[in-house]
Amino acid sequence: MRVPAHYISSLILWVGPAFAFFKVPCSTPLVIERADPLISPGVASNHVHTIMGGSGFGFTMTYNMTQASQCNSCSAIEDKSNYWVAALYYHAKNGSFIQVPQNGGALIYYEQRPDPTTNGVIVAPPAGFRMIAGSPFDRQYKDTIEADARSFACLNYDGPGTPQTNGFPTRNCPNGLRAQIYFPSCWDGVNLDSPDHKSHVAYPNQTYDNGPCPATHPVRIISIFYEVTWHTEQFADMWYGDSQPFVFSFGDPTGYGLHGDFLNGWDISVLQEAIDTCNDGGGDITDCSPIHLYPDTVTDGCLLEPSIEEETEGWLNALPGCNPIQPGPDDATIVTGCSAPTEIGVPQHYYTDVTSSLGWEWIGCAVDNAGGVRILTGSSVRGTDMTVERCIQTCKADGYTMAGLENSTECYCGNSVDPAKKPTVTPMGNCLFPCSGNTGQKCGGYGFIGIYQECTGDCHNMQYPVVPH
Ligand SMILES: *[C@@H]1O[C@H](CO)[C@@H](O)[C@H](O)[C@H]1NC(C)=O
Ligand SMILES: *[C@@H]1O[C@H](CO)[C@@H](O)[C@H](O)[C@H]1NC(C)=O
Ligand SMILES: *[C@@H]1O[C@H](CO)[C@@H](O)[C@H](O)[C@H]1NC(C)=O
Ligand SMILES: *[C@@H]1O[C@H](CO)[C@@H](O)[C@H](O)[C@H]1NC(C)=O
């Protein structure tokens, strides 16, 4: 096993502006489901992905759809790209699976690694550009540049540093497991994509993150590197047998099948300007003036409603899709014919639809109590038996037409919301606390209120972004 070259070469980064980079932080994923517009356009994908970036994401993607994003789980306003990797599951001794929680979403590095043969010219990939790094079929270390471009860091902030590995580490990682994927940075200069989503790009011809591009792919694009971290330490006392208990959603217990997908949604001229002018050796994006940042409430709140009708969370009898464990070392194969849904279904709402039961509609999630000022100022009630229905019925009985739920237990009533404080389409992810009286319902968040109002005429729940077909 090699020590990944990125680890070594990152030490060189500090030398000067020529090796600068900037990091785009991505908050909680947009959606975790079987969607992959590159490999499986228009249908459910083979396995569950965790998807970050612009809410324009859908089962079939164009550049224009990225630009239509209404919110973004990543911080750069000018970047409506999507970044995705497979979800990680814990595989229990009894055969059940449960998703391993992610630590945030991802950290995306944009590294200005020049090609010595192109006079330092690094270009932003064009609108519509997309690519995949790695292969879900790999089950062993293959001595290739693509294999070296994928690695795992077993995080232990208090202990001695341990070498990164190409497969899953076989010990508990006290601060989580970080998957790392370095994308090809050499482009053929012509094709936005290719049938295998790889051949239009290539790694530099000696190492995955440095050096000249091969003559077949002579255009140096910005080097993109993903870090995605999971809280595997939460399962520290649940190991059994003599191997590690984590599997990727595509039935990989080895980790060698790690792969990532990139769909370019940048404002191309801004990305080019950032490449040309941002020279912070520490990668701090706040020092990169062409790029502007969303507040955390936007990136934390940006969420898409999943629309494949299956469970992906909680204890599962099998991995979603047709993904039996394939331990290798031979390449895995695609399995079909299990009963997993292939169709895209209706979006599953995070709010509770009470239009037909109560004649009230959902209008959104808003910041509340900023500076001690509540946005619904009528009566209020709190309790350990709070539900959406209880709050609405209380407000209705008190003569109000709006009801807001907050922090699992609280209910506020009123008749109007200051237009400046009205909920927008973006922050549903801030209103996901379970209701104290029904954990299957959502009752706002800490400082965030989920609001319903009495319908006037036809009821119309506010439409949140859904994964477009
Ligand atoms: C994308 O949007 C631009 C600007 O609105 C428009 O001119 C172009 O026709 C659109 N392209 C496609 C493929 O829809
Ligand atoms: C399997 O084991 C896990 C962890 O011990 C447990 O929580 C889960 O309920 C079990 N599932 C079944 C189907 O027994
Ligand atoms: C790598 O690419 C450069 C530029 O095209 C070329 O000059 C060099 O010979 C290549 N090296 C190898 C080992 O292929
Ligand atoms: C939110 O709920 C938590 C847990 O019940 C409680 O400790 C906290 O005080 C509440 N916050 C507010 C602002 O009411």
Bulk shape = globular
Whole-number tally of structural domains: 2
Bound molecules: 2-acetamido-2-deoxy-beta-D-glucopyranose
Mean pLDDT, rounded to whole units?
Answer: 92
Q: Which structural class best describes the helix and strand composition?
A: mainly beta
Q: pLDDT under 50 segments (min length 5)?
A: 1-18
Instruction: Please tally the β strands and state the result.
Output: 23
What is the gyration radius calculated from CA atoms? 23 Å
Features:
disordered N terminus; 469 residues; signal; single chain; binds 2-acetamido-2-deoxy-beta-D-glucopyranose; 7 helices; mainly beta
Structure description:
The structure is a single chain. This protein has 469 residues and is mostly beta strands. The chain folds into two domains: 5-301, no CATH class; 360-454. The chain has helices spanning 5-9, 63-67, 145-148, 268-277, 296-301, 355-358, 388-397, and strands spanning 21-26, 31-33, 49-53, 82-86, 88-91, 97-99, 106-111, 130-134, 150-154, 177-182, 186-187, 201-202, 219-220, 223-230, 246-248, 259-263, 360-367, 380-382, 402-406, 410-414, 434-435, 438-442, 448-454. The chain is globular. The two termini are 42 Å apart. The structure holds 2-acetamido-2-deoxy-beta-D-glucopyranose (4 copies). One 2-acetamido-2-deoxy-beta-D-glucopyranose binds next to loops.
